[in-house]
Model the fold of this input.
Amino acid sequence: MITMKEIAEIAGVSQATVSRVLSGSSAVSPRARQTVMEIVQKHDYTPNYSARNLAMDQSFLIGLIIPDISNPFFGEIVRQVEREAGRNGYNIIICNSDGDITKERSQLQTLRARQVDGVLVIPASSNSPILTTLYNSDIHTVVVTQPHSRFDSVYVSHLEGGRIVAQHLLGLGHTRVLLVGDSESENDKIVGFKQVFSEKGIIFPEDHFLNIGAWDHDLVKQAYLSGLEYFRRHRPGHATAVFTVNDVAAFGINHALKELNLRIPDDVALIGFDDTFLSQGLNPPLSSVSQPVEEIGRRSIEMLLDRLIRKFDGDVRSVQLNPLLVARESTLGRQAGHA
Amino acid sequence: MITMKEIAEIAGVSQATVSRVLSGSSAVSPRARQTVMEIVQKHDYTPNYSARNLAMDQSFLIGLIIPDISNPFFGEIVRQVEREAGRNGYNIIICNSDGDITKERSQLQTLRARQVDGVLVIPASSNSPILTTLYNSDIHTVVVTQPHSRFDSVYVSHLEGGRIVAQHLLGLGHTRVLLVGDSESENDKIVGFKQVFSEKGIIFPEDHFLNIGAWDHDLVKQAYLSGLEYFRRHRPGHATAVFTVNDVAAFGINHALKELNLRIPDDVALIGFDDTFLSQGLNPPLSSVSQPVEEIGRRSIEMLLDRLIRKFDGDVRSVQLNPLLVARESTLGRQAGHA
DNA sequence: TTGTACGCGTTATCAA
DNA sequence: TTGATAACGCGTACAA
Done:
């Protein structure tokens, strides 16, 4: 790889002039510019970012800490982030945490070593220790997917999402609903769901929760097996509907129900969360709560770049986006039409 | 952020000694080591990679060029790659090409500027120009997902995959098959499929191809719409089976068939490709051709690290992995049992 | 075992 | 408009 110094020699100018030509920062004589550019072209000069970073104390690197890239929902976020970052001269270093706070910690450590200018983080949990570490560092941070009091954040209200689902199912007459998720008490989707029940004076039945872990990569299988066991053990009607905290789990439940010859939604209604691009392909089409995933990704990176590039230095900003019920046949039945 | 120089001052030693302590390369007196380490701990010293890269002419950075991260199949590859790389002290810069060779080119350019030690590339097409660029550079490269004569490569034979599908469908008596993909003549899955037909003297019918583009992000919808139109226009039996070159497209077709009240597989059989973790959640469970995606990811990064770390300098190696037919109800019907 | 000194490829400051 | 020259933080050859 050719360097500025070498180009300077060939061109018979100083290395500083080459730098000026390439950065376009200050004025250079047309002659010098001409000669330099020709040599640059000819030798396919590429600047050395490491050197540039060192000199400018800026890496144009953004760290992205995310629980599971293979989850299409997160994948879409990555895609948006990478695109928008690229347009602005930034690159993304990706860190898959598996939802493990230990991994998160070591990854943040290497991101710091890499001198990243900023970090987008989808924390493993709302009290991930890295959030504290980040706060004590001077790395610009945006928390994605959940609200945060000290950082910029972009999120969809899970509480509201859970409430919407509850209202939808209650409206259809379901009072015995099986909840499928990672935590019965700490997952806001579930909290919101139950909130509506208690507000309406409806008692949420005991033993209607299936714990399938949070970021288990084999979520489909987990949900499938748990669902199978549940519906084998309980009489039909013990639960007339199932709400899973994400679509992926709903796939597993769907499979289990099919296996047991239970009809959806006649025997058991099913509703997921995220409305990934696969929900509508499911059979019957899956009701779900859609999150504006492109917007989440885009707004997140935009907020970060706003601080990095435009040097915005105001108070912490949070963007709350609205979840949207997408009712399809898996809860509505055939009369759903073809939405 | 504290630097070696500052640590050296505090410790009353030279910066070189601090470097030695931290790298553990050469011998240092226990006393010096002790003092330095304490200060390092206390101030939470983090090495500056940019500086290190510059000095060592090594970035410990690997570029990953991939068509669509939001596709779960690729997502899984990213996951494996990131993990294995991380274990060996390397980080991943991710580049989403959208299957666009222009984007590929500019991304490779910035990867070069970033001084990446190696590149894993899933090319937009088999003759992506960046392959030439890479060959003329000194960047270690592994081509993933397709064979290559000049680079290390890891792939599953698409030709063989297509053949397997043809054999499976012919075995079930389907001779009129609708093919759904990006290219009728250049996609090896389709080429292999037709190969079997002609070997057996069976003429593949005209007008049995639906072009839905390659990396269109809205593949499900594309397939859905195309499928809908196709099955509306042709009499039942014009095609008795559908083969889509990936599962995502199969989701769309599944939706279309359902909409038209065509039963799977009684009216139309359906088979996909990739066997993503979602296939088994589909209803009926989707037959597909599985690719050992974890192995693809793992082997790819391993081959690259082998050259980077172990300095392997032998001939180009290619790893061909075998596709595997996973027959489920969408082709076999209810007698499929519960595989 | 330690310190000095140089180089890595840039940016940026200062005179000229 | 240009060219020296000093950083930037680290690795390392060399001498002590």
Q: What stands out?
A: Chain A touches chain B through 54 residues (CB under 8 Å). The CA atoms of residues 328 and 334 of chain A lie 9 Å apart. The longest helix of chain A spans residues 72-87.
